[in-house]
Specification:
The protein is mainly β. The protein has one domain: Protein of unknown function DUF192 (Jelly Rolls, Sandwich). The chain is built from one helix and five strands; from the N terminus they run E-H-E-E-E-E. Strand 1, helix 1 and strand 2 form a beta-alpha-beta unit. The chain is globular, with a radius of gyration of 12 Å.
């Protein structure tokens, strides 16, 4: 899915997210800890969002454009922000290995 994982696990890194990027970095995902909903305020590009439970099982996926807000996903404890093309590779129930 990706060669690089950016981890956002502090208040500062979670608030910043992908702000400041002009596009989703190639072969990269951002893991946002303690998260069950994301927003796209001030973003310049669309992303794929994968909501994970405590076992990294995919609960939901969503495509988001700039200025959209995702739906809240009950049971999600983290989110992977990805390029839109990655959503074609995952489905609900998949287990994502993060290393």
């Amino acid at each position: 899915m990706a060669d690089r994982v950016i981890i956002a696990d502090t208040l500062r890194t979670r608030l910043k997210g992908l702000l400041g990027y002009r596009a989703m970095p190639a072969n990269t995902v951002m893991l946002i800890a303690a998260c069950d909903q994301v927003h796209m305020f001030f973003m310049r590009f669309g992303i794929g969002v994968i909501f994970l439970d405590k076992n990294n099982k995919v609960l939901d996926t969503q495509c988001l454009a700039p200025w959209q807000v995702s739906k809240k996903v009950p049971g999600a404890i983290s989110v992977l922000e990805t390029g839109l093309e990655v959503l074609d590779l995952v489905k609900r129930g998949d287990i994502i290995k993060i290393s």
